[in-house]
């Protein structure tokens, strides 16, 4: 069978799973949430990362179903964590361009929140720049509906896309996530350091929180602290792990 045919069966066969990577709030001094990262336990090929199948899912028209599954699983997991001794933990979910632009995102989010009983403030949606810039008017409408529900909205991979600053101000956003390609070069490339500094300052001007992703070294962390970054995420604080692994890690560091 083709990979596409396999993917069509993956949800029903229970082959999709989520790994979770913590993000740390500098002021709180502890993990305040975890990003859900999709994995497919393929019966023959083993554990596959989204790079191997998200595009295929979009082409095959399966991305809405998968995205809906991810939202339900992530909200359910966050609700479970919050009931099991980590009441402050949020979950962040990556939203695909296809689901955002022509799909059922608003209703899928509403139904995942209702089914899980998770507070909307504990769900963060990560949306890339190119996704929101595809159709700005429609994006503002979608983001407004999500914001009115109380969900937290972030721009993922910020700095790699082409968002116009004037639009950025019109989107009802809560935070920017600095793309890890810039964070990686802290201490290496002064131009990329300047970009990180500029994004942090831009976020502050727009009254948005700013997260640095891909933080791997204490040198990078020191720079980010000095520049006033609000949240950090990366291998320095934890790799993506199973839900049990995440719970264990967070309970150790809280
Ligand atoms: O760990 P990692 O290999 O999971 O992630 C690779 C890429 O896949 C990242 O760009 C990430 O945003 C994306 N990704 C991870 N999980 C999901 C998901 O549930 N849905 C979508 N659409 N993308 C995801
Ligand atoms: O595009 P998005 O930000 O959703 O991508 C998340 C991806 O980044 C996942 O594949 C995750 O495994 C990866 N990632 C998270 N932290 C680090 C890090 O510190 N270093 C590297 N190289 N990759 C990371
Ligand atoms: Mn992300
Ligand atoms: Na990112």
From TrEMBL:
- Which domain of life does the protein's organism represent? Bacteria
List, for all copies, the residue spans of the domain called EAL.
1-254
* Protein name per its UniProtKB record: Bifunctional diguanylate cyclase/phosphodiesterase
The organism is: Pelomicrobium methylotrophicum
Taxonomic path: Bacteria, Pseudomonadati, Pseudomonadota, Hydrogenophilia, Hydrogenophilia incertae sedis
User: Which residues of the full-length protein are shown here?
Assistant: 197 to 450 of 457
